[in-house]
Here is the input.
Amino acid sequence: MVLLEINFTINGKVFNVNSKSVPVDTSLNTFIRNHAHLSGTKFMCLEGGCGACVVNLSGLHPVTGDVFSYAVNSVTHFRSVQLHKQ
Ligand code: FES
Here is the structure.
């Protein structure tokens, strides 16, 4: 079994999450609300259509070191994230 792991911060707090600590089908919205205990993160349609759950994702590109920022729909599931140089 492959152990999937991701490290990130939410509002400056570090989270180290792996497939043993959080089910792999957990949406970002569920993680923010239930695991990070930030229940102010909203959801409405749970289908990606209304925009209520959008959160800002920002970081450094692993190769170029450039700062990136994306609006992310938090009710969908992350299977993999790939960054492409533009
Ligand atoms: S809950 Fe509607 S787009 Fe996210």
